[in-house]
Amino acid sequence: MSLTLEQVRRVAHLARLEINDAEAQTTLGHLNGIFALIEAMQAVDTRGVEPMAHAQDVAQRLREDRVGEDDRRAAYQAVAPETEAGLYLVPKVIE
Amino acid sequence: MIGRTLKELGAALAARQVSSTELTQLHLDRIARLNPEINAFVTVDAEKSLAQAKAADARIAAGDAGPLTGIPIAQKDIFCAEGWRTTCGSKMLGNFVSPYDATVIAKFEAAGAVNLGKTNMDEFAMGSSNETSHFGPVKNPWDRSRVPGGSSGGSAAAVASLMAPAATGTDTGGSIRQPAALCNLTGLKPTYGVVSRWGMIAFASSLDQAGPMARTAEDCALMLNAMAGFDDRDSTSLERETEDYCREMAANAGEKPLAGLKIGLPKEFFGEGCDAGVMARVQEAIAEYRKLGAETVEVSLPNMQHGVAAYYVIAPAEASSNLSRYDGVRYGYRAPDYADLDDMYCKTRAQGFGAEVKRRILIGTYVLSHGYYDAYYLQAQRIRRLIANDFVEAFRRCDVIMGPTSPCTAFGLGEKAADPVQMYLSDIYTIAVNLAGLPGMSIPCGFAAGLPVGLQLIGDYFAEARLLNVAHRYQQATGWHLQTPSE
What we know:
The structure holds 2 protein chains of 2 kinds.
Chain A: H1 5-14, H2 21-39, H3 73-77, E1 83-84, E2 87-88
Antiparallel strand pairs in A: 1-2
Chain B: H1 6-14, H2 20-38, E1 41-43, H3 46-61, E2 72-76, H4 103-110, E3 114-119, H5 153-160, E4 167-171, H6 177-182, E5 186-189, E6 209-214, H7 217-227, E7 262-266, H8 276-291, E8 295-299, H9 307-322, H10 341-352, H11 355-368, H12 373-394, E9 400-404, H13 420-424, H14 431-436, E10 440-448, E11 451-459, H15 464-477
Helix pairs in contact in B: 2-3, 7-15, 9-11, 9-12
């Protein structure tokens, strides 16, 4: 399997990564090398094998519905690029 | 005091031969002298470290000291530490001063250990050479023209150059064991779920696990005692009884301390693809184990050969999801100029992430995208199951599995940086352990052309205490782990 330049651009957009033509070209070469390695996997017969998502076969814990953490909004927002009145600021999306 | 083990330092502190303040200052002085060249630390804060040392000295004076109280330990820069810059090796977090402590950091603080500084690493732990760090490559103290391994390369170089008595690491595909092998250290990746991942910056959440990097198995056991334990803030943390990981080492076992131990040697670890010098040292180590009373038995891990392929689907898939949080809104880097919100995301991420991280995000996004999910992601997860099943079969016939940690010794800076696939194959012997979620170690077992070689030990689930004892008995009979590089 080989990716195309168009696919690289599309995936970069899905991942919200700006990519210029030169980068897309280099990336295409690297990704095709990596996918050549990954493709070998297709030869393995996995019919009837349950996919393994996690190392331990345990169920998610439930907890009591009660407040467990302190309010540290000010400390957490202090590291944000831009905040105002306790809110995160982003460029305007609705005119 | 430089170059002593944690156990020796603990005894020296208890006997008042040295104070934590003196010990911390000694290591800070050494860092000031060696780090400009080695580049193992990205952040050092003498004031913070010395304040912790002072508090530790008060605890020692009050008779309230544990085995790690007052001992300086370097922390991989993947662990959030309150008030410390925490970068994960990335420009994206270059300005991030953590507002909270990771559970691992809080546990070391509770044990009275001193945070000696934050160590360099591959960006977001993605790499096997420490060359993807935004803060520059780390030099291997054994040969400064070579890499220390990665991703915990800064931690490995800090301990190997005696700038730190021990350090933490994290291991997603080999990131504790491979740098330990390349820098002549003892490193342990615990069973998935034993150490909390809370506050440890996520790479591939179903594989990431933190562990100790030190000079002896005894020191790793002391650190794991402090690090392990249930944490309700990590939904994958396992609820288990507290263990003393030193317990098996305490017994006086005589001349054949490992009598009855069955060592499984997977034929896939002993085939082609491994450097001859590495293989010779590994075989000698296994011969030493026979002298200690162990028996060896051939086992097979037939699906291990597909481990690297499955890993490079699963790990990037999880990474592409985890790293979507870096959007320039809540923390970290934001691009200075942008047209609108979408453009802000795209530019922030293009400028904030390095080339390897972007590659993995793209692989992950692709394999999870419509039309490819079954062929790649589910197929990789099925192979993951087959690999885990291979280990279950193998452990029916043996107690511990051994083989090389890395197929080669430390390679030259820049040697593999241009070819991602060559770099990925550095972890050919370590990746299967993460996919299965098993505990694995690397211990020093000699040198090939003057460079350290690591022996990998793999245990069954939750067999850390046994693995550590198996490593400890070898270290009592040999002296490879005590070798240090000349300055």
